[in-house]
Specification:
Elements lengths: L3 H19 L6 H8 L3 H5 L5 H25 L4 H18 L1 H8 L6 H28 L8 H20 L8 H15 L5 H6 L2
Helix pairs in contact: 1-2, 1-4, 4-5, 4-7, 5-7, 5-8, 5-9, 7-8
Length: about 200
């Protein structure tokens, strides 16, 4: 006998595919049921509405995105590498989890409270992850920072502002995102001020 949790999970998988394909506004309960190969009434047994399903999909994507970032960060020992994989996995996560990206970037007015809560949750999660990385780097003598919390806020805010230009891809440019991420990471680590060592070596 199939467990209720398994059926619920299958509904979310189907809904995630449909929401990604059509967007929230154009998706109907019939679309989700058709994707599953089930009747619409069977879905209503587990979810009260399309909005209810959408919130569950977003919650699922949030957990997956955070888990992927934490797994990548924990796989590295050096704080510089941790920060680098955080940036990479974070931006790839935004690209992969289109439903999460949509709800964070756009005004989903029908669920405004949910949107605000989601934005605050993702921001705080990311700030906490970055702060832990920076704290470890300061302790190891890798980073020279006076306030890791404010720096974490600045990094997370900067990445949010870079989402659209980083994720705009051009036809035939499969490595474009990686190139842009590499440049962003370079600026994040070294800034734009010419270092004295560079000045000396150029003479």
């Amino acid at each position: 006998m199939v467990k209720k949790s398994e059926i619920r999970s299958k509904i979310l998988v189907a809904a995630q595919e449909v929401f990604t394909r059509y967007g929230f506004g154009k998706t109907t309960m019939d679309d989700i049921a058709r994707e599953m190969g089930k009747g619409k009434s069977s879905i209503y047994y587990y979810f009260t509405s399309k909005e209810d399903i959408f919130r569950a999909v977003i919650d699922k994507e949030l957990v997956l995105m955070k888990t992927r970032i934490l797994d990548a960060v924990s796989s590295k020992n050096d704080s510089r590498e941790k920060l680098k994989v955080y940036v990479i996995e974070r931006m790839h996560g935004v690209q992969s989890f289109k439903n999460l990206y949509t709800v964070i970037r756009n005004e989903f007015t029908a669920q405004r409270d949910f949107v605000d809560q989601t934005r605050q949750q993702t921001d705080q999660d990311e700030i906490s992850i970055v702060k832990d990385i920076l704290d470890q780097g300061v302790e190891a003598g890798i980073f020279n920072l006076e306030d890791t919390y404010l720096t974490s806020i600045a990094i997370v805010t900067a990445l949010k502002g870079m989402e659209i230009p980083l994720l705009i891809t051009e036809t035939g440019s499969e490595n474009l995102l990686e190139q842009r991420l590499d440049r962003l990471i370079d600026v994040l680590f070294y800034g734009i001020i010419k270092r004295e060592s560079d000045h000396v070596s150029s003479k």
